[in-house]
Each structure stands twice: as structure tokens, then as C-alpha cells.
Amino acid sequence: MTTLYIVRHGQAEGNIYRRCHGHYNGQLMPEGFKQLDRVAKRFASTPLDVVFSSDLDRAYQTAEAVCRYHPFKPIKNERLREIYMGDWEEIPWGDLKRDYPEQYQNWNEHLAAYDNGTGESFARASDRMFDEVSRLCRENDGKHIAVVSHAVAIRAFLCRAVYGGIEAAEQVGMGDNTAVTKLTYENGKFLLEFKNDNAHLGEISTFLRHPWGKSGGASNAMAFDVFQKNDIPEAVAFHKKAWEQVFGTLDDYDADVTARWIRRLSERDERNVVFPSLDGEHIGLIELDPNAKLMPSSGHISLFYLDEEYCNRGLGAQLVGYSVMHFRRMGKRYLTLRVAENNLRARRFYEKFDFIPLREEEDGDMTQIVMYKNISVNVHE
Questions:
Q1: What share of the chain is helix, strand, coil (3-state, %, to 5)?
Q2: How much is the pLDDT for 215?
Q3: Residues near 225 by Cβ (< 8 Å), separated by ≥ 6?
């Protein structure tokens, strides 16, 4: 008999930025590293002989935590990866809801029918995971093993191993980040002891802080609409509100200068200027400048703005995520921004996402702090 533990990776970029990360090598978030400490302690006194892990960073770093108090390292296995999402990879969930309504609905409500035609269907992911985990159990008969993988991959495995098939996907549900499932394997059959236990997380449970995480889809997820030339009046209106919010006055505001600036950014790359939207309604503006060069190999957030009614609703992380992925795709290593020294709420928000103060700058009567964030892959290694 083989004793099997299955562990989901810690909280990662796709979870918080609300982006579709299957094989995309998304990184762990600051909260994810705290979760790793908890899962490491959970397994400290658990008998383990070997740990296998998806080769994607978010899973492998979690597997290293599972091994932290054991005398071996995890073994990478690409067949334990998350479901491959094809053309959906690294796209905001809100964009997918807007552009692929039928398959998006399947993803959230009837996962067994999900197949976007460019990646891996849920059925194929279920076959892959069941076959590979079964093989690992057969080859490690009599041992205690752990497998570290991903939410949908684990769900796909459990459907086949325990619940009779993929039609049970909604019954199986989604496991929290670093949630643990325990099974035994003997004579070709799996027996479930417990499923998706997250007792070790306490107050840092992703599901506790972000209830939408249980769905794995686009609940509360924004789409990002690319600026078009005829959008100038709307873009300028958002920029004007942001200016007044920061400076408290419109005395020095020049709409014509703003319009020229927005056009120039958009001409460099159409994704530099986008409108965050919810349910088809534009609710703010993002302006990104790849040429600001506040530090080497950096992209700059020139403007983040959400209408007041959408603030304090947990949406800001998705603006950060859009910017991180936009500049990472360009090969940038750092993300920079300026924030008023006295804007303590904004500074705390950015610090939560690993932004670090770089220097102070004087702007008339205002002191601004330049902050930066490392957006490289494997920045924590």
C-alpha cells in the first residue's frame, strides 16, 4: 500500500491578479511564501519518503517547503503540471469571460465539458493526472509520497480516482492554496482519507481573504479594453479625475497636453493604455510608459485610476497584475511608480505587492516617493 499526499501550490500571481495561468510560469505572491512556512511545519513530523512536483515554479517552491524538514529535495515532473490552457494562457479572466462566453461558462459551471480547442480539455487533464499519479504510487509501493500540483489538475485527478469520472468536477470542488489531500493506493484503487484540508493556514487562507478563489474563474475579474483613437474624450476624463484626486485642484490641468500624451503612449504599444472594465463598463484607466527609465530595465506605471465607487473592493491587485505581465512580456525586470509621500493608503497598498521605496523626488509643493518592484521570474530564489 502507498500513502499519498496531494498538495496544491501556494498563493500565486494568477490567483490574485485574476489571470489564467495553466502552464504559464506564474510566481508565488508574498502571501504565498507565508503559506509555505505553514505547510512546511504541517509536514515536519509527517513520514515522507519522496516528494514529486510539477516543474512550474509555484509548485516546485511549495514542494521545497514540504521537504524543508526532511533530508531530500523534490523531484520535478512536468506531467504534474496544471491543465494547459492554450490560447487562454496568461489572459485576464475578465477578458476570457468577454471573448469566450460559452467555454468560460463551461469552465465555471460544467468543467467536464470544458475544451477551448487550443489547449488541454479537462478530460485529457484528468487522464494525464490519473495515469501519472497511479504510476508514481505503483512504483513506490509501501512508501509515503507527496505530489505537489495545481488546483484544476488535482481536481481532475480526484474526479477519476475517487468520484467515478469527470462529471463529478463540481462535487469535487476547488482546494485552497497549499490545501492537503490524503489517500491510500492499493491494488490499483485509491481510497480517500481527507480532501483539501487547509487547517494549517488559519488567517492566511486564500479562500478566507478572497472568497472568489473557490470558483477558479472570473468572479470579480476585470477585463482590459485597449484604448482606441476615438476614446480620447473618455480617457482624458478619467485622467482629469485622477489629477484632481492627487493634486486637489485642476488649476494646472491641460486636457490637450493629456490627449497628446495618451496618443503617444498608445502609438508606442496599443497595450500601454487600457480601460479596466466590469460587465462591459469602463471603470478606470491605466497608462504605462516603457520609456520612463526611472531605473535600468524598468517599465513605469504613469497612471492607475479607478472610479471611487470601485475602490476598496479588492480590484487594485488586477491593475498591478496587468502592469507586471505587460512589462514582463517586454523583457523588463522592474516596475516603477510614483506615489505622494503623504498618501499612506496608497503606499501601504503598493508595499503589500512587494513595492520598495527607491528615492524621494520634489514636485513643486509635493514630495513623491519612487517605488519599484522586481518582476523577474524566480526573484525569490
A1: 45, 25, 35
A2: 55
A3: 274, 275, 277, 282
